[in-house]
Structures are given as C-alpha cells and as structure tokens.
Automatic annotation (TrEMBL):
<feature type="domain" description="Capsule synthesis protein CapA">
    <location>
        <begin position="59"/>
        <end position="305"/>
    </location>
</feature>
<dbReference type="InterPro" id="IPR029052">
    <property type="entry name" value="Metallo-depent_PP-like"/>
</dbReference>
<dbReference type="Pfam" id="PF09587">
    <property type="entry name" value="PGA_cap"/>
</dbReference>
<comment type="similarity">
    <text>Belongs to the CapA family.</text>
</comment>
<dbReference type="InterPro" id="IPR019079">
    <property type="entry name" value="Capsule_synth_CapA"/>
</dbReference>
<protein>
    <submittedName>
        <fullName>CapA family protein</fullName>
    </submittedName>
</protein>
<dbReference type="InterPro" id="IPR052169">
    <property type="entry name" value="CW_Biosynth-Accessory"/>
</dbReference>
Amino acid sequence: MAKGRLIGVFVLLSMLLFSCGIKTSEEDVDNARTASSHVEKVKASREPKEQVEVKQGISITAIGDMLIHSSVYDDAWNDTGYDFTPMLEKVKPFISDATISIANQETMIGGTELGLSTYPAFNSPQEVGDALKWAGVNVVSLANNHTLDRGEEAIQRAIKHWETIDMMYTGSYKSERDREDLRVMETEEGVSVAFLSYTYGTNGIPVPEGKGYLVNLIDQERIASEIEVAKEKADVVVLSLHFGNEYERMPNQAQKDLVQFVADQGADVVLGHHPHVLQPVDWVIGEDGNRTLVIYSLGNFLSGQDEFYRQIGGVFKFHVTKTLSDGKTEIEVHSPEFLPTYVKYEQGRGYEVIPMFQLTNQELPNAHNHYEEIKAHMSQWVPELKFIENEKEDES
C-alpha cells in the first residue's frame, strides 16, 4: 500500500511539473512577440509618398539714373544741410514695395569736403545716398561713364559712405579684393540674387594703372567669367549695363548684341542705363533656351535735364519664383511691371519725381496722352507688360 501511494504521488508531481513547463514555454513565446508577429494581421502595402513642392518668391524693383546736377543739389539745400527725401516722397512707396531695390547712382557721392561739382565732372552730396536708403533702395550700381570724374578720392569717399549706411554697391570697388567679393543678396524668403555692373567707358578718363577695380568696364571675357561664378553662388543673376547712345529712344545693334551675349551666358535680368531716356522692355532667348528679361534703358530717375523725354524714367518691377520639387530647384523670372515717372520742377526749383498716372494737366499739359504714349513705347515688344497704376501709401 505504501509503495502504491508513493508511485501515485510521484506521478502526480510529474504531471504538475510537466504542466508548469508548458506554461513557462508559452509565456516565453508571448513575451517574444512583436506587433508584426501576429499572423492574423496582414500588412497593408504603403502608398508612394506624394511629391512635395515648395515655392518661394521675391520681387525686385529698379530705377534709372540718379544724375545729380547742381540745380538738383542746390534745391535740396535747406539752410542746415542737403535733404533729397522730399524729391522722392511720392515714389518711395513704389520703390520700397519689393524685396530688393536697385538704383543706378550715376554721380559719385564724394561729399562736400571734396567740393561739389556738376557736368562734365560730377561730385554729389553724400545725402543722395541717405535719400535712396530712406526710399527703400538697398543696392546701387556705380559703373558708368562718370565713375572716374573726380578720381579715386571721390570713389573711396563714396564707398565709405555706402558702407556706413549699409548699402550694397557693385561696379566700382575700393580694392581688388573688394572686387572679387561677388555681391549676393540673401533674402529671408530663401532666394539669393547676384548683382554685376559694367560700363562702356569713362568719358576718355583713363583707369589708373593697376587699379581696374575702380570701375568695371564692359569686357565680354570678364562678364562671362563673372556670370559663371554668380550662377554657382546665387539663384538669380542681375546685370546693370551702362551702354547705348544718349537720348535715343530705341536700343542700337551693339546693345542688342551685348544683351544676346549675356543671355547666352545665362544672365537672368539686364538693367540698362546711359541713354537718359526710356528704351523698351523685352525678353531675349539665350542659346540654351533660357529667357532673359531686359529693359534697355531705365531713363533718368532724378536729374536736372530739361527736355521732355529726359524728364521721364520709371520704376521697373519683376518677380522671381524659386520652386523646390523632387530634389530639383527651378528659378523663374516673370511678371514684369512698370511705373512711368516724371521729374517735375519749375525754373530749377521744386524738384519732385511723380508717378505719371498721378499727373494732372496743370503739372504736365496733355498729361494723359503723354502717359499713354510712354506705355505704348515701353510695351511694344512685351504686350503683356503690366503698368502700375494703384495708389500706394508710405507705411514708414
């Protein structure tokens, strides 16, 4: 009997141990499971991700010749100093209504310490620069036929002032090292713009030996090289070209040929000066099929010249869109706009730049017809050119 009981107890213990072993094994399996180990769940196939497209945009405005004759700076004198801001007050909202604005500073702002002078050897008050800054300009082109009028001293004084007011300048430099520092404006919108500037000559004044950095002369080899560098460092390349024949309202063949050359190099925009009158807007196709936007001449923006077409300039505006898609970047310059302007004054006093669409017949006889003629002239090659005619208020 005792032996039988012992056998029964042994069998019972073995069964208990066996059942415990199985449970432990099952727990081990459960603990080892992951979310993907449940055989009853079938993985859903993932849909391909939608292509992400990001667009970033800026606008750029450009104005023509700031050609400061003695009548203009005399009118800016107010017994305590020079103040050019009232002359730009009515156009400030249109200049500043852009991400970047560039002006052609035709006369060096060497300042009063050097002695002010006018044609044929210009030197202007430094307050001209202050007024441009106030109006919303943040880049100035300095390469033109008057760059060397008063020599290196005027250039160095002018550049020192541009640096003091934090204004980007291009086309004339204080040293070779300064010249090699490509001017690129980085915007908050993530679009970068390079600015280059060149002139056909310097009114016969020789460039000082070893100091070619004082003024960029038009040289196709240099231009091609600098455009190539600019395209690597910036999204958009804008060239200021001082060229053409004075007082001619249409570009000559040399202008067209040079614009075609820079378009073939991949320049995005060309801003022309020197004729002192407006020349039309156009699109030029480069050899790679790229489109280059050009305004052959922006005319005089502020000057003391007194013939009708020399009193007309404008604010040229265009837009840039940068599209990031599928690892690729595309840049598009598009939607050009133009605001014709008129320099109003009487007997050498009261200089004021006024949008032409705001002019009355009292300010300019037959104002409407003159305005319509300018619109037709500027848009003859680009019928879709938009003219800015909405009132803007100065928000500063």
